[in-house]
Amino acid sequence: VHLVESGGGLVQPGGSLRLSCVASGFTFSSVAAGWFRQAPGKEREFVAAIHWSGGSTNYAEAVKGRFTISRDNAKNTLYLQMNSLKPEDTAVYYCNRGRMIRTTYYPGDYWGQGTQVTVSS
What we know:
This protein is 0% helix and 56% strand. Strands 2, 4, 5, 6, 9, 10 and 11 form a 7-stranded mixed beta sheet that branches. A 4-stranded antiparallel beta sheet has the order 1-3-8-7, with no helix packed on it. It is built from no helices and 11 strands. The chain has strands spanning 2-6, 9-11, 17-24, 32-38, 45-50, 57-59, 67-72, 77-82, 91-101, 104-111, 115-119. The radius of gyration is 13 Å and the shape is globular. It is mainly β and 121 residues long.
């Protein structure tokens, strides 16, 4: 199982970034997937998740209305579109495969290496 994130970088407050996570080694189209983030000195926290079909999503309150999770099962790729970024969004962002029952996401054991997002002027 491999999950490889990309798309992070330095962006000014109010800016946008699009993260990608390419999955391999398993049937991506049959599992739910999610994004998490970890800021310095803090625990890893849930950001967003999406059902294997793309038909159901769930977001942390802190990112609702600003972030959009999506997936392209034909490309084995998970995305996170981040708009109106704030300094408090600064963190390493990780993708994960897991299970989703209704809108509750249960993370699995596999994580990517992460991609750094820094929001600063």
